[in-house]
Structures are given as structure tokens and as C-alpha cells.
Amino acid sequence: DAMVIQNPRYQVTQFGKPVTLSCSQTLNHNVMYWYQQKSSQAPKLLFHYYDKDFNNEADTPDNFQSRRPNTSFCFLDIRSPGLGDAAMYLCATSSLAGETQYFGPGTRLLVL
Amino acid sequence: SQQGEEDPQALSIQEGENATMNCSYKTSINNLQWYRQNSGRGLVHLILIRSNEREKHSGRLRVTLDTSKKSSSLLITASRAADTASYFCATERNFGNEKLTFGTGTRLTIIP
């Protein structure tokens, strides 16, 4: 089945130690999104790609970076995780911008 | 600022009853979408309604949209224990630059 896959599902890192989360999709969608979701809150968009065009949200900290080497894969790099970065990170895809988004299961990040 | 506000924040009903959740937003939109999120998982798309539509149905789901009041409602009929989840509305604004903005969510609990 076509799907959005996130690895790992759970990630534990140390304060200040770089971490990379990955997302892959078999839907061949043009648009890929990264969201941060903290407990009992709405998903917050960090950035998205329309094909290779990168779009950063104005309030996304510089500590967060992203790469999309090809259509299928997208990575979220957190250069120096702080305790406040502990959250669920959700990847989503869409064939058309602004239309239905298909989410992966998320990666829960714990920062010690 | 948050585009969508949902109400109520939490709702508990008996299995078999109907559940209604409301979403209000602030700016003109192209479409409004509803998503479900089970605890600790990714979001699942339920239904999309466009700005020129007033009502849509999908199985036990009924969504209405009132653009004059900038509001939408999601009705789940004949609720089941498996409907226990958080429900989010998300809007694509006019000139929204490919993004969805999520509301604050309603936590629905179905009591068996």
C-alpha cells in the first residue's frame, strides 16, 4: 500500500547532540511537510517542500534544518536539541498544495 | 495567530450518541479539512469541504461550512468506541501558499 513512513518511531537523544529524523513516501507526492506537535496541541508547521523548493516558516528556529534529496525522502535535522524540542514530529505529503495531506505515524523525540 | 479554534476542547458521550464539534476560523479560505488523531499516532484525513460547498457527507460523518460565519461543524453519528480520538480542523487560506493551518482540536471520548 502507498504510504508515508517515518523512522525511527521513537528517538532518544542527549541535550545538544544532533539528531536526524527521516520520512519516506511511496505516494509520489510533490509536497512534503514537517510538523512539530507537543502534547495536547495542534501540529505546528516547521517547513515544507514543493518539489525541490524549500519553504521555511518564519518562526521555525534555525536549529531545525531539512533536506529533500529526492521525491521520496525528506529529512529533519535538529542541530542542537534542547529540552523544549521534545515533541512528536510528523511528516506529511500532498499531491497538490493545500489539498489533502497524508501523514506518517510520527517520531516521538525525547531529549535527555 | 492560530487560524482555527475548536470547541469544545473535550467531549465525552455514550456510545451510540451523536458527537458534534465546531471549528471557527479568521480569514477567507479555499477549503477546510477535518483530521482524526488517535493517541500517539499520525493524523488521518477525514473529509475536505471547499469554500463553495455547504455540506458534505462521508459514511457516519457530516460536515457543514458557513463561510459567512467563518465556521464549520463535524457531526459523527451513532458513535463507536473506536471514534475515541482527537479531531482537528485545518484550513487552507486564500493565497495560503500551500499550507494548512490546524485548529486547537477537540478530544472526543466515547464511553462504551
Distinctive features:
heterodimer; A: four-stranded antiparallel sheet; globular; B: 112 residues; mainly beta; six-stranded mixed sheet; five-stranded antiparallel sheet
Overall description:
The complex is a heterodimer of chains A (112) and B (112). Chain A is an all-beta fold. In chain A, 0% of the residues lie in helices and 52% in strands. In chain A, strands 2, 4, 5, 6, 9, 10 and 11 form a seven-stranded mixed beta sheet that branches. In chain A, strands 1-3-8-7 form a four-stranded antiparallel beta sheet, with no helix packed on it. In chain A, a hairpin with a 7-residue loop joins β9 (87-94) and β10. The radius of gyration of chain A is 13 Å and the shape is globular. In chain B, 0% of the residues lie in helices and 59% in strands. Chain B is built from no helices and eleven strands. In chain B, β9 and β10 (101-102) form a beta hairpin. The chains are: A mainly beta (112), B mainly beta (112). The interface between A and B is medium-sized, with 27 and 27 residues.
